[in-house]
């Protein structure tokens, strides 16, 4: 591994550097490093740097505005001091040994964290403190839905955009008293690329996601990417519900655009969709995508639709026609995205 020569940045030679982007090397800053005075952007990708060395570098970079750490395998903890008053963007991508992120920087407005879903058991301790400036959060991690409602509603009062990739939820989403008072855009992805994940959501109550809608009075756009596979015998046609409809007292007055990708004929998913329709007087567009959400013929030479999706599509379409179409108000548009009839299912799935 190439060891970046830190003396190149010492003795005042690095005082004017505003952006430092290192890829594929070892970087061990010492007391004599002089590039931090004017540094506003720091990006380390596949860089061997230890936690205390990163801490030293950050504590001397008071002008830092943007920090990106990607695939840094030796970092165990990231501690950002309150002295970084200008730091507004923090992104951490797939650092396999990372256990703790603790930020005391008061003006971070955008936070992105991506965890490698191959290790479900590795848990991250995340302490973002109370940030009145936080506007956008993207988190990919297990149990992130529970964390968002339990922690973020009270600590991020001015959050406007929230995107969550959750590949495992141990319990259904809780109901909380706190609210996302300014949240306008909510994106929830409940899927994994690993085919071994068939039953990760077997016991998850997807209807419990109404807790997010109830906690977001200003929500305008909601996108749900549902689990790719459903349990056996949970089709709405195998166990028809006695009733589908609105929970009394709930109203999503600002919600205008709703999209559900990987829509299936499961009872709870149909129930969630009907509840949204019955509780959203301002709805303008409902999109139900019964494909896998991948490329289509208009983008590539052929559609890539899994065999299971292709087999489920007629049931999903029937569920839409039977339970959902009649609830769509005349002021709203219903878009149904179906597998292309001229493209067979991908033989590899």
UniProtKB/TrEMBL annotation:
Gene3D superfamilies: Ribonuclease Inhibitor. Residues 2-341 form the At1g61320/AtMIF1 LRR domain. It comes from the Eukaryota. SUPFAM superfamilies: RNI-like. PANTHER family: F-BOX DOMAIN-CONTAINING PROTEIN, OS02G0105600 PROTEIN. This is At1g61320/AtMIF1 LRR domain-containing protein.
């Amino acid at each position: 591994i190439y060891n970046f020569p830190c003396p190149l940045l010492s003795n005042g030679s690095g005082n004017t550097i505003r952006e430092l982007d290192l890829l594929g090397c070892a970087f061990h800053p010492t007391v004599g490093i002089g590039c931090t005075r004017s540094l506003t952007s720091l990006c380390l990708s596949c860089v061997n740097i230890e936690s205390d060395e990163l801490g030293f570098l950050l504590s001397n970079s008071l002008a830092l505005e943007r920090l990106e750490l990607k695939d840094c395998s030796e970092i165990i903890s990231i501690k950002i001091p309150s002295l970084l008053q200008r730091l507004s963007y923090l992104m951490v991508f797939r650092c396999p040994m990372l256990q703790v992120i603790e930020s005391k920087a008061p003006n971070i407005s955008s936070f992105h964290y991506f965890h490698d879903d191959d290790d479900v058991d590795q848990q991250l301790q995340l302490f973002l403190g109370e940030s009145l400036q936080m506007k956008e959060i993207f988190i990919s991690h297990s149990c992130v839905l529970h964390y968002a409602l339990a922690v973020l509603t009270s600590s991020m009062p001015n959050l406007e955009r929230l995107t969550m990739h959750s590949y495992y939820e141990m319990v259904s989403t809780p109901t909380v008293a706190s609210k996302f008072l300014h949240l306008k855009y909510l994106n929830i992805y409940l899927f994994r690329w690993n085919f071994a994940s068939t039953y990760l959501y077997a016991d998850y109550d997807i209807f419990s996601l109404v807790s997010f809608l109830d906690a977001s009075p200003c929500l305008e756009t909601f996108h749900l990417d549902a689990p790719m596979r459903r349990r056996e015998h949970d089709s709405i046609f195998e166990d028809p519900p006695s009733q589908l409809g609105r929970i009394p007292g709930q109203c999503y007055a600002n919600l205008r655009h709703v999209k559900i990708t990987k829509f299936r004929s499961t009872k709870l998913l149909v129930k969630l969709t009907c509840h949204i329709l019955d509780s959203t007087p301002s709805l303008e567009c409902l999109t139900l995508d019964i494909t896998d959400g991948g490329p289509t013929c208009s983008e590539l030479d052929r559609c890539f639709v899994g065999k299971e999706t292709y087999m489920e599509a007629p049931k999903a379409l029937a569920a839409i026609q039977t339970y959902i179409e009649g609830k769509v108000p005349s002021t709203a548009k219903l878009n149904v995205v179906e597998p292309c009839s001229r493209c067979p299912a991908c033989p590899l799935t």
